[in-house]
């Protein structure tokens, strides 16, 4: 067995046939030591410049930005900024970056100092303003010097310096305790950090504050010191930016004004259409935010009830549709399991035949086939009965007529012409029900595969039954059409996009990509490549990249299982432990299913299963794709189970808290809402649950709150819930891995002063404590195992680390392929980007990410400690 050694000075690797002693290693490494002339010269005398704790190339930027911000804090921005610029130029001169002082730069810096952020305002605002000022200061200095825009490194360092100094100054230097916002945030945080009793606090808030203080005592986190202010500020900033007194008597009118609900939202016009009188000029679209939070944002800012009238009813109906589809698709999957394309065509012929016995004889079907067909027929009967239709009449009379009309009109016939030819006078109820789907070509009368036909009719029928009536009402009320635009485009179009996504319509860019792909394929000899088929191929690539990047890797699975602690403890507190104890029992998990906690959340594995069924219906080529997708599905199956348990933990924990609130409230609605922490939810969602509770149905309010807490901490990925930028064929292919980061950003944003929901002080304190526990535990384990940099890994997936987004394997492969093609056109065969493209193709092989982990560990050979650390996600970098 060979032994591998690494020179700690040069990083060069050596292989020896046996284990070497220390003297032998010194002799080996001595020959590899660089000469003295090649070493860095550290003999310069230590001066003031060397005391600045940043690399040399960033020292002038640090002096320039830090000095200007400090002078702004001191109230002498013009003189201080000029002096800071003079000092920065002196640093540059001492380092050899310039030869003389430039008066123009000093003058520009002095003027720019007038815009330096001060101590007043929130910490979050200070961080943002400091970052912008840092970037602007570095850019103005470069332009005054006559140079181009600074490098990305200089801009990033300027932003970091400005953000840290401004945010830190506002946090630690001014007399106020916290980000001074609403009264409840200031008092909650002050009570948690100082231990003083709260004024005018609710019972639930006092319980939460006491719980956090107890946790703080038990953790005894070293290096973390809370510094409470000596007294609370006399004023606070309201949500609309005004300042008001902390005197409760003076704040009541402001709060009542902010929380007032506009009752007459739609005064009727003479023709009976609603008019919208709200001011939408300050509203904006959120391309990278989940639609739920955009609907909540518009409703609470303007009073336009689009969360109540559009998002909530449509999303709940779509959840019921997904549950319906999953139950019956699973039955069909068992019935069609192992059948070839030709056998499925025989099954469809039998289903459409009015004489079943004669069809059985002509098609040579045995008793096993008849048993399967009986099961399939039973699924048709159950689903069509739910739709109020007759499945036997549809299969034996109407579907054959549509098929014959399609054959008669030819390959290029439009769906509308096929329907009109088959039924020239009157449409039967069954055909009318599926007409919209036929016109959109999500159902085709030309299909002969029994599996594809049955799945298509179940999916489209459930949408028509559960979602379509609600969606049409929302579209008529809020979207209108091109001749009757009900709302401004920046409000109307996001609503329209949401409704299209729920229906499953492809986005315009994805549609264009599919058309281009299909046209190219047909010109290259791949006949029959329709845009619909092209989209299915792209779906296979999307599924494969998930299976490659995440499939069977222990680290991401463990991190996924910790999400309920990372994001859920902040919302539930001690009831999180109750949820864990209940969810890990059979009875508890069954209760989670009965409460609807697992309803309508397909998860990655179930979504991939649907893609595989679609691929399998395409014959031999589809079978290969289905095999790839099925393997990805198996590798991602653990994620589905972990997601189910995470949702069960959150929902059951909130259910227990709500049941306690019902017992203590004894019919008092206000006390129930307080004790159940309903105000911690997004305001629009909380308003819906409050309305249910005020009607006296406390049990339904408790159930809805359990689902809401699971949704808001474990995220919902079904159609209509993904951020608009990451939806559609193009969005999922190029940005699918950014969805989690988007949800996490909005989760953190709800804890900030302007976020939607209450109890922010308690929730934020719990969040920091939970993440401190994760970072501390993982860091201590990594340190004990001797892993280098054991704290960097946990920080990358806790606190602000998950906000980073690293791109898409599909996008990276496409970019490398374009560069590789450019190399081929210039005659450079086997060049760099061609090799990269070949390496990138592994991103579409299920399990390739796990294989790369093992290859990296074998090459590094740093012992079992690092192997375990990488596997469980403690080590900083998991290779992609």
Q: Counting H and I runs of at least 4 residues, what is the number of helices?
A: 39
Strand order of the largest sheet: 1-2
- Output the radius of gyration: 32 Å
Low-confidence stretches: 34-47, 175-182, 221-273, 608-620, 874-880
| Spatial gap, N to C terminus | 29 Å
Structure description:
With 880 residues, this protein is mainly alpha-helical. It is 65% helix and 2% strand. The protein contains 39 helices and 6 strands. The chain has a two-stranded antiparallel sheet with strand order 1-2. Strand 5 (480-481) and strand 6 form a beta hairpin. The longest helix is centred in the C-terminal third of the chain and has 46 residues, at 620-665. The chain is globular, with a radius of gyration of 32 Å. The model is unreliable at 34-47, 175-182, 221-273, 608-620 and 874-880 (pLDDT under 50).
Q: What is the secondary structure topology, with strand pairs?
A:
Blueprint: E1 3-6, E2 13-16, H1 22-30, H2 59-74, H3 77-94, H4 103-112, H5 123-145, H6 152-172, H7 183-194, H8 203-219, E3 235-237, E4 243-245, H9 248-259, H10 291-302, H11 306-336, H12 341-352, H13 356-362, H14 367-387, H15 391-409, H16 415-422, H17 429-433, H18 435-439, H19 450-479, E5 480-481, E6 484-485, H20 489-503, H21 508-523, H22 531-550, H23 554-561, H24 563-572, H25 575-583, H26 586-595, H27 603-616, H28 620-665, H29 669-675, H30 683-694, H31 698-714, H32 728-735, H33 739-749, H34 760-784, H35 792-796, H36 809-825, H37 832-840, H38 848-860, H39 864-872
Antiparallel strand pairs: 1-2, 3-4, 5-6
């Amino acid at each position: 067995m060979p032994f591998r050694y690494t020179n700690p000075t040069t990083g060069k690797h050596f292989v020896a046939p046996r284990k070497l002693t220390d003297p032998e290693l010194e002799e080996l490494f001595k020959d590899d030591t660089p000469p003295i002339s090649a070493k860095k010269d550290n003999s310069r005398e230590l001066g003031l410049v060397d005391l600045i704790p940043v690399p040399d190339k960033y020292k002038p930027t640090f002096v320039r930005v830090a000095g200007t911000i400090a002078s702004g804090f001191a109230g002498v921005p013009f003189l201080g900024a000029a002096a800071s610029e003079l000092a920065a130029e002196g640093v540059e001169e001492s380092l050899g970056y310039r030869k003389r002082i430039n008066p123009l730069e000093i003058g520009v810096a002095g003027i720019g100092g007038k815009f330096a952020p001060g101590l007043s305002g929130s910490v979050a605002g200070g961080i943002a303003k400091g970052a912008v000022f840092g970037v602007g200061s570095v850019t103005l200095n470069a332009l005054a010097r006559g140079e181009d825009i600074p490098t990305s490194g200089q801009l990033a360092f300027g932003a970091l310096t400005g953000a840290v100094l401004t945010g830190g100054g506002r946090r630690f230097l001014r007399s106020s305790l916290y980000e001074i916002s609403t009264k409840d945030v200031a008092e909650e945080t002050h009570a948690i950090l100082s231990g003083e009793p709260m004024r005018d606090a609710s019972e639930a808030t006092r319980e939460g504050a006491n719980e956090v203080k107890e946790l703080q005592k038990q953790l005894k986190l070293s290096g973390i010191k809370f510094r409470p202010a000596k007294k609370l500020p006399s004023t606070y900033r309201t949500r609309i930016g005004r300042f008001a007194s902390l005197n409760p008597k003076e704040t009541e009118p402001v709060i009542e004004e902010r929380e007032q609900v506009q009752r007459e939202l739609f005064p009727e016009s003479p023709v009976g259409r609603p008019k919208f009188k709200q001011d939408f000029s300050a509203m904006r679209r959120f391309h990278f935010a989940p639609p739920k939070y955009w609907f909540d944002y518009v409703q609470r800012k303007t009073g336009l009830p689009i969360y109540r009238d559009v998002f909530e009813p449509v999303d709940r109906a779509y959840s019921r549709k997904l549950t319906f589809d999953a139950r019956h698709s699973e039955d069909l999957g068992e019935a069609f399991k192992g059948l070839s394309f030709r056998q499925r065509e025989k099954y469809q012929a039998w289903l459409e035949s009015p004489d079943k016995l004669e069809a059985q004889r002509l098609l040579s079907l045995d008793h096993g086939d008849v048993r399967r067909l009986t099961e399939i027929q039973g699924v048709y009967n159950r689903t069509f009965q739910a739709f109020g239709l007759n499945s036997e009449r549809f299969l034996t009379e109407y579907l054959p007529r549509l098929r014959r009309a399609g054959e008669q009109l030819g390959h290029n016939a439009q769906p509308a012409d096929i329907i009109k030819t088959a039924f020239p006078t009157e449409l039967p109820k069954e055909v009318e029900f599926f007409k919209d789907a036929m016109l959109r070509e999500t159902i085709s009368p030309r299909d002969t595969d029994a599996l594809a036909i049955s799945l298509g009719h179940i999916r489209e029928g459930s949408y028509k039954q559960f979602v379509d009536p609600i969606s049409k009402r929302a579209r008529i009320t809020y979207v209108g059409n091109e001749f009757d635009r009900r709302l401004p485009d920046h409000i109307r179009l996001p609503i329209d996009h949401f409704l299209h996504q729920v229906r499953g319509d492809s986005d315009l860019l994805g549609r264009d990509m599919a058309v281009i792909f299909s046209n190219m394929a047909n010109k290259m000899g791949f006949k029959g490549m329709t845009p619909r088929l092209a989209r299915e191929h792209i779906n296979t690539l999307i599924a494969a990249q998930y299976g490659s990047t995440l499939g069977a890797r222990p680290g991401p699975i463990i991190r996924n299982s910790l999400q309920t602690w990372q994001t859920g403890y902040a919302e539930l507190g001690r009831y999180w432990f109750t949820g864990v104890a209940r969810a890990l029992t059979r009875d508890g998990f069954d209760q989670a299913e009965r409460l609807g906690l697992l309803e309508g959340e397909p998860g990655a594995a179930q979504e991939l299963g649907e893609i595989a069924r679609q691929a399998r219906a395409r014959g031999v080529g589809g079978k290969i794709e289905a095999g790839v997708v099925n393997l990805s599905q198996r590798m991602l199956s653990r994620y589905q189970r972990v997601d189910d348990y995470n949702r069960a933990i959150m929902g059951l924990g909130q259910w227990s808290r709500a049941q306690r609130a019902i017992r203590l409230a004894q019919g008092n609605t206000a006390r129930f809402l307080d004790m159940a922490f309903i105000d911690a939810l997004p305001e629009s969602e909380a308003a819906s649950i409050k309305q249910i509770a005020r009607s006296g149905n406390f049990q339904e309010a408790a159930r809805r709150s359990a689902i809401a807490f699971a949704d808001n901490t474990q995220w919902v990925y079904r159609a209509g819930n993904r951020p608009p930028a990451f939806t559609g064929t193009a969005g999922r292919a190029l940005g699918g891995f950014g969805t989690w980061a988007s949800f996490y950003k909005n989760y953190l944003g709800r804890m900030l002063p302007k976020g939607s929901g209450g109890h922010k002080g308690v929730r934020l304190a719990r969040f920091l404590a939970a993440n401190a526990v994760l970072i501390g535990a993982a860091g201590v384990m990594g340190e004990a195992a001797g892993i280098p940099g054991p704290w960097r890994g946990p920080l990358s997936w806790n606190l602000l680390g998950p906000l980073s987004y690293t791109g898409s394997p599909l996008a990276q492969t496409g970019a490398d392929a374009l560069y590789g093609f450019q190399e081929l056109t210039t005659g450079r065969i086997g060049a760099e980007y061609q090799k990269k493209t070949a390496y990138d193709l592994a991103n579409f092989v299920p399990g390739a990410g796990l294989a790369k982990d093992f290859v990296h560990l074998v090459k590094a050979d740093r012992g079992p400690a690092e192997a375990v650390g990488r596997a469980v996600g403690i080590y900083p970098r998991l290779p992609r």
